[in-house]
Design a protein that fits this description.
Blueprint (H helix, E strand, L loop, with lengths): L1 H13 L18 H58 L29 H4 L1
């Protein structure tokens, strides 16, 4: 690693200064009115494309903000609905499921495998 840093440093010291970019160091020669007209038409097209891109950026941003707003509203409504549902089930306001009574009149309780006189191994 030391050698790589040393070689890169030496190359940076002993190479001539290069100009980065495609532009000329001295002013470019005047190539005539047809080239100036081409440059002006290209600049106009770039400005039109920039305006269209700006409109698309605004439309996309508006759509994104709308989606986030709808997501937040939907989440809040879902949480409120869930909270209301949980509150009504705890108070016993929902319609209970009717389990058939056992032949001896006993009721089936939650958490039991079956009526008290039956074993889970005999049910299979």
């Amino acid at each position: 690693m030391k050698h790589l840093i040393l070689i890169t440093g030496l190359l940076a010291l002993f190479t001539s200064n290069m100009q980065a970019g495609w532009f000329f160091s001295d002013p470019p020669p005047d190539l005539g009115p047809e080239y100036r007209a081409k440059i002006v038409s290209l600049e106009d097209r770039i400005l039109e494309q920039h305006a269209v891109t700006t409109r698309w950026e605004i439309a996309t941003g508006t759509l994104a903000v709308g989606c986030v707003l709808l997501f937040v509203i939907g989440t809040a409504l879902g949480a409120k609905t869930r909270q209301h549902y949980d509150g009504t089930t705890r108070m016993g306001r929902t319609v209970p499921t009717t389990a058939p009574a056992a032949p001896n009149g006993a009721r089936h309780h939650l958490g039991e495998a079956g009526p008290p006189d039956r074993h889970s191994t005999l049910a299979a």
